[in-house]
Predict the structure.
Amino acid sequence: METAYEELSVNEAINLLPGLNMESTDGRGLGGKQSTMRSRGVKGVVMQRLGIAVSSLALLLCSATLALAAPERTVVDQLGRRVTLPAKVQRIIPLGGATRFVVYLQAFDLVVGVEAMENRQPLSSGRPYNLAIRSRAAHLPVVGEGRQKPVNVEAIIALRPDLLITAEADRTQADFLSRITGVPVLVLDYGGMGVLKPERVKETFRLLGSVLQREKRARHLIAVLTSQQRGLERRLAGVKAIPVYVGAVSQRGTHGITSTDADYYPLEVAGALNLSKQLKKGGHTYIDKEQLLVWNPAVILVDAAGAEMVRQDAARNHDFFNRLAAVRSSQIYQTLPYNNYHTNIEIALANSWYVAKLLHPKRFSDIDPAKKSDELCRSFVGIPCYEQLRREYGGFGPLQLNSGTANAR
């Protein structure tokens, strides 16, 4: 660790790696070498201090020997990095959106430090996993703010974690963080920013389940996800896809009607034709309002996090919105926001069942979207979540463009 402290200050690291910020409580980065201290006083004091130093060195060497002797294993993370870590991981710190996966795997008992957004920022139903562990997270030390804001390297080192887990780092950043903390760093992958790719998520469950000795839970989560996929596929077999536009999609904040996503997962699996795919741009993008008029879809979905922005836009631009067939026929509905510090898998799935019922009601006459949401939240994070989401965002239902919130179905 001494070499890492000497080679780079934290401020220098920040300049090198803008995507991964570090901070230090001494206000000077990681600091340099400590200056040599001169012994003063009588010979006995000198000898006493020498004895303490020798004892400390012996303890340090003993600890190092034990550390070297501890069983280790090597895994390959989702960046393809080989990561050597203890055979039994007992102390972890999740960073960069990784806490959600830890909660999914029922491994929060291993967490020794958290980002501030997990225990200090206002509680929000937009991250159901946080609702599930907030009371426990409130008592844990904070090692950074989250959302790519600075992490406190000294706080991390002091907590002596066996492993750091992150979903927001490239190879260079992960290697650097490991080097300056002396702790192995495991990088996970959601499948892309704001995008749900189930097969990639299953790989994440397998990897983290193995690392944290939660293999049984990982297999259960994979089975749940697979069951949801097959259930939708079976019910929608042979249906004709219905053209749909989804707007106000959240992406690092809330946005208006022109914010859309060509890879919006619910439209991928709910028997819909995502009109944004015609743009030949994958993922999140923005469209011109005129393009929405050209498509003039019979059905429009609105991410509930941006619903108020859509209402305000509609109040200012009556003529534009009244030209949309979906608005004239009251076929504009809101879905729950599922991107909040990466993807809430359970909410993405809940949206999928709701949209499928909306577009193909006869195939889903037995499905109650609110109950389905609670079922999925219980499966992934252990608590129901729809009522909290309904209170905060308005729930599933038609979007009223004049005032008020959507009525939950």
Notes: The longest strand covers residues 242-247. The chain has a mean pLDDT of 84.
